[in-house]
C-alpha cells in the first residue's frame, strides 16, 4: 500500500472519494508519522483523540454522500489559532495552559468543510521571529539538511573523523531552522506530518518558512481571511493563510479559510472564488514585473540565477516580463520594524496576569503585572514591546510611528503605480538565502535576523497577496523559493502563475533522516 502521508491533498481527497482508504486510515498514518518525527519538534500538542473522532465523522459523511470539500483531510494548526477546548499558547509562557472557549473563524471553516485536526504547531513566540527559535517550546528543526560539498571540493583535512563523515552518509548533521514564525507548520508539511497547515503572516511568516522547507505558502490579501480568534501580533498586517506541498493544495485550503466574517471588521465582504479553478489556466499575455530594487548588493549569485530562471519559465509559458520600479522598497524593513512592534506593544498589553494564562504574584498589583510580564514573555517579545512603546510615546510618535506610517503609504503607492501600468504580478526572490543553522543568526545582532524579511515585509505593508513557490536548490542541496506578489484580491493569478513555476521546477522533498 502506498504511504498515505506522501499523497498530495488533492490525491488524498480523490482516494477518500474513491474509497481507496478511509479517513481514519489516513489520519492514523499521519499520527504514526508524527510520533516518529517528534525530534523535529513541529507539533507542540498532538490531538489524536479529536483527530480520530473527526476522521470517523468524515468517513460517515463520505459514506452518506454530501461530504464537505475537505472531508477527512488531516491538517496541522499553528498554535496562534484559538481552538475550542484545546490548548492555545502562541508558543509563549505567558499564555500558560490557556484553553480557549471559542474557535477561530478560519479553523471553524476548516472543520465545517470536514477537515481533521492532528494537533497544534510550534511557532515563534507571538509569531515574532524568522527562525522559530523564539518559541517557548524550543526550536523547530527543518527536515532538510545540507549536503556536504563534494570531497574533492574541500580543502584537505587532517581530521579523519570529518573525512569519514564527508563520504558517508552525505548529509551534514547540523540542524537547520525551518524559518519563522510559522516554522512548525512548514516543517510538518515538508516532513509529511500533515497534508496542509495553517499559518499566519505579518511580515513573511508564511512565505519565508515555505521557501526554507521547499513547500508552498500563500499570504492572502489583507482582509481575505478573518483574523477573529487568531492571537494578535500587529493587527494591520496579520493575515492567515495555508501551507501545502503543491500550489493546487494551497488553493483548495484557501477556499475554505477565506471569507467574510462579521466578527472581524477588517474582513472583506466579497465572494470567495473557486481558487482551484485557477490551476492550469493559461498565463499567456500576462505582464510580470521584475522590480529592480529587489536586486540587493551582495545577494548570492544562486538567488539571482534562480530569479532569472523563474522569469524564463513564465516567459516560456507566454507571459511578458517587464522591469518595474518600487522606489521605496529600501524603507520597508525599517518602517515595518516600527509599525509591527508599535501594534504588538498595544496588543500585548492584555497579558496582565489577570485575564489569561500565567500569573506571578507580587506585593501589589503593579508588581504582579511586572513580575508576570517579565517572567512570561521571552527576550524577543520584550524587545518588541520596548521598541513599540518607545515609538508610540509622546515626543517620539511623530518622529518614528507617524513617519513609518507615511512610508507605508508610499510603499503601497509604489505597488499601485506598477499595477496601474497593467502588470498582473511581480516576481521576486522569497528569501535572501537558504535555511541557516540553529543558533547561527541574530545572536549578537537582532537586525541580522530581521534582514530575512527583506523581500516579504513590503507585501504586508501594502496589504497585498504573496505566494512562495519552491523553485530550485542551492549548492548544498537546500531548497530556495521565489515569490509572486499580486493585485489585491487577485490570489487566482498567483495560483495560475505559481503552478507554472511549480511544473517547471519539478518536485522537492527532504531526505528522511528522522525516522
Ligand atoms: N519575521 C517577522 C517578524 O519577526 C515576521 C513575522 C511574521 O510574519 N509573523 O516580525
Protein traits:
eleven-stranded mixed β-sheet, 37% helix, 515 residues, 11 strands, binds glutamine, single chain, Amidase signature (AS) enzymes, alpha/beta
Structural class: alpha/beta
CATH architecture tag: Alpha-Beta Complex
The fraction of residues assigned to DSSP E strands is 5-15%
| Number of beta-strand segments | 11
Give the full name of the CATH homologous superfamily: Amidase signature (AS) domain
Mean pLDDT: 94
In this entry the ligands are: glutamine
Which CATH class applies here?
A: Alpha Beta
Q: H/E order of the elements?
A: HHEHEHEHHEHEEHEHEHHHHEHHEEH
Low-confidence stretches: 150-169
Describe this structure in words.
The protein is of the alpha/beta class and 515 residues long. It has a single domain, classed as Amidase signature (AS) enzymes, CATH 3.90.1300. It contains 16 helices and 11 strands. The chain has helices at residues 9-17, 23-36, 48-64, 105-112, 160-167, 183-190, 207-213, 247-257, 301-316, 332-347, 365-376, 379-392, 397-420, 446-450, 457-462, 491-505; strands at 43-46, 74-78, 116-121, 196-200, 216-219, 240-244, 287-291, 320-324, 425-429, 466-473, 479-486. An 11-stranded mixed sheet has the order 1-3-2-4-6-5-10-11-9-7-8, with helices on both faces. A hairpin with a 5-residue loop joins β10 (466-473) and β11 (479-486). α2 runs antiparallel to α3 (48-64), α6 packs parallel to α7 and α10 crosses α13. The longest helix has 24 residues, at 397-420. The protein is globular, with a radius of gyration of 22 Å. The two termini are 19 Å apart. The model is unreliable at 150-169 (pLDDT under 50). Glutamine binds at residues 127-130, 181, 201-205, 233, 340, 453.
Amino acid at each position: 500500500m502506498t504511504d498515505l502521508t506522501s499523497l498530495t491533498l488533492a490525491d488524498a481527497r480523490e482516494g477518500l472519494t474513491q474509497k481507496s482508504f478511509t479517513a481514519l486510515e489516513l489520519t492514523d498514518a499521519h499520527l504514526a508519522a508524527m510520533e516518529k518525527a517528534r525530534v523535529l519538534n513541529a507539533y507542540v500538542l498532538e490531538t489524536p483523540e479529536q483527530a480520530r473522532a473527526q476522521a470517523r465523522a468524515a468517513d460517515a459523511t463520505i459514506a452518506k454522500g454530501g461530504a464537505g470539500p475537505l472531508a477527512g483531510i488531516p491538517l496541522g494548526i499553528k498554535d496562534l489559532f484559538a481552538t475550542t477546548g484545546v490548548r492555545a499558547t502562541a508558543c509563549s509562557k505567558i499564555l500558560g495552559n490557556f484553553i480557549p472557549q471559542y474557535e477561530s473563524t478560519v479553523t471553524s471553516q476548516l472543520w465545517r468543510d470536514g477537515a481533521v485536526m492532528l494537533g497544534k504547531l510550534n511557532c515563534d513566540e507571538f509569531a515574532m521571529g524568522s527562525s522559530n527559535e523564539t518559541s517557548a517550546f524550543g526550536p523547530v528543526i527543518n527536515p532538510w539538511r545540507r549536503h556536504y560539498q563534494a570531497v574533492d571540493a574541500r580543502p584537505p583535512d587532517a581530521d579523519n573523523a570529518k573525512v569519514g563523515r564527508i563520504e558517508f552518509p552525505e548529509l551534514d548533521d547540523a540542524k537547520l531552522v525551518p524559518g519563522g514564525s510559522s516554522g512548525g507548520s512548514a516543517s510538518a508539511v515538508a516532513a509529511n506530518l500533515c497534508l496542509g497547515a495553517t499559518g499566519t503572516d505579518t511580515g513573511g511568516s508564511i512565505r519565508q518558512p515555505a521557501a526554507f522547507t521547499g513547500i508552498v505558502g500563500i499570504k492572502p490579501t489583507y482582509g481575505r481571511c478573518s483574523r477573529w480568534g487568531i492571537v494578535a501580533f500587529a493587527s494591520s498586517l496579520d493575515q492567515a493563510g495555508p501551507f501545502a506541498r503543491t500550489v493546487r493544495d494551497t488553493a483548495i485550503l484557501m477556499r475554505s479559510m477565506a471569507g467574510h466574517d462579521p466578527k472581524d471588521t477588517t474582513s472583506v465582504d466579497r465572494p470567495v472564488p473557486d481558487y482551484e479553478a485557477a490551476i492550469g489556466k493559461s498565463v499567456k499575455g500576462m505582464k510580470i514585473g521584475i522590480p529592480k530594487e529587489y536586486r540587493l548588493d551582495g545577494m548570492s549569485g544562486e538567488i539571482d540565477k534562480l530569479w532569472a530562471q523563474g522569469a524564463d519559465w513564465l516567459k516560456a509559458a507566454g507571459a511578458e516580463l517587464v522591469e518595474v520600479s518600487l522606489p521605496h522598497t529600501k524603507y520597508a524593513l525599517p518602517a515595518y520594524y516600527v509599525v509591527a512592534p508599535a501594534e504588538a506593544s498595544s496588543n500585548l498589553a492584555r497579558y496582565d496576569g489577570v485575564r489569561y494564562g500565567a500569573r506571578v504574584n507580587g506585593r501589589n498589583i503593579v508588581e504582579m503585572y511586572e513580575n508576570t510580564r517579565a517572567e512570561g514573555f521571552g527576550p524577543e517579545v520584550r524587545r518588541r514591546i520596548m521598541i513599540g512603546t518607545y515609538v508610540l510615546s509622546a515626543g517620539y510618535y511623530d518622529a518614528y510611528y507617524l513617519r513609518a506610517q507615511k512610508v507605508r503609504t508610499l510603499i503601497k503607492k509604489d505597488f499601485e503605480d506598477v499595477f496601474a501600468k497593467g502588470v498582473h504580478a511581480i516576481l521576486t526572490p522569497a528569501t535572501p538565502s537558504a535555511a541557516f543553522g540553529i543558533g547561527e543568526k541574530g545572536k549578537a545582532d537582532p537586525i541580522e535576523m530581521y534582514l530575512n524579511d527583506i523581500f516579504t515585509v513590503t507585501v504586508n505593508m501594502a496589504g497585498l497577496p504573496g505566494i512562495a513557490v519552491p523553485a530550485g536548490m542551492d549548492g548544498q542541496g537546500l531548497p530556495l523559493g521565489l515569490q509572486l506578489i499580486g493585485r489585491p484580491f487577485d490570489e487566482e493569478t498567483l495560483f495560475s502563475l505559481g503552478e507554472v513555476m511549480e511544473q517547471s521546477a519539478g518536485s522537492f522533498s527532504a531526505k528522511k533522516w528522522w525516522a
